[in-house]
Each structure stands twice: as C-alpha cells, then as structure tokens.
Write a structure and sequence with these properties.
With 148 residues, this protein is α+β, with helices and mostly antiparallel strands. The protein is built from two helices and four strands. It has one domain: TcpA-like pilin, CATH 3.30.1690. The chain is elongated, with a radius of gyration of 26 Å.
C-alpha cells in the first residue's frame, strides 16, 4: 500500500493575496491616522503661538504703550519668553502682528493646508474675543480685542 500522506510545503497564491490585502488596508489606515495626528499636533502648536502672542501684547500694553503702536512683530519681540519671534508650526515662517486700533490687533499665521487652516480658525473662534478667518486659503488672520 502506498503512503498517502505527503508534506505540503509553501503557501498558495490565494493565501499570499489575502495577507497582502490585509497589510495594504492596515498601511492605508496608519498613513491616514499619522497625517491626522500630525495636523492635530500642528494645530495645537499654532494655538500655543497665538497664546504667546496674546501674552506678549498684553505685556507690551502694560508698559503703557498703545496697541496701535505695534507695526510689526519685532515691536513686541522683547516680551516673548525667549525673545525669539514665534514661527508658524506648518512652514516655520515668522508670524506677523500689527495693531489695528487702540484696543485690537491682528496676527497672521501661515499654514500649508487649507483644510488645516479652517480647523485652526474654528478652534480659535471658540476663544472669547478672537475672530479668525482663512479667506479660503492657507493663511489664518486672527483679530484679537484687548483684554482677552
């Protein structure tokens, strides 16, 4: 009688295709998650930049200087903790700050993505005294009223 048992070595093409399909789905999901996490981190860093500018302008104002005298971010540079001008977390370009009137000023922060700009502006809008807009582009313009 012949020995009917034989050893099967290797995998079938169907098994290989199934493993590759599962790996592809996992990789696609992880890339999307990573991109969203990176965007959220930049938005949080942008909120930190806005907070540092608000603190610097408040310190500037407390030296009895009117907000309207701020023409460029260098005017308030000495009031940042490290005396370094904050930069955009998206593309490392310096932010701009200028006084609008005696009780308000505006800053601009550039982003690299219009969708991220919109989310960033929406989060800033949630803060009292802030008005933010992206104008459909990648630069967020934030207006701040004194005392926020």
């Amino acid at each position: 009688m012949k020995n009917l048992s034989r050893s099967i070595a290797g995998i079938t093409l169907l098994e290989l295709m199934l493993v590759l399909a599962i790996a592809g789905v996992v990789i696609a999901m992880s890339i999307k998650y990573y991109q969203q996490a990176a965007t959220n981190q930049r938005i949080a860093a942008g909120m930190g930049v806005v907070s540092s500018v608000v603190s610097a302008v408040e310190s500037y104002r407390l030296t009895n200087k009117p907000i309207s005298s701020i023409e460029k971010v260098a005017d308030i540079q000495d009031f940042f903790p490290s005396t370094k001008i904050p930069v955009s977390p998206w593309d490392n370009t310096p932010i701009t700050v200028a006084g609008d009137s005696s009780n308000s000023y505006q800053m601009t922060i550039s982003t690299t993505d219009a969708a991220a700009c919109k989310v960033f502006a929406e989060q800033i809008e949630g803060q009292q005294g802030f008005v933010a807009d992206c104008d459909g582009g990648t630069t967020a313009t934030i207006k701040v009223k004194e005392g926020t």
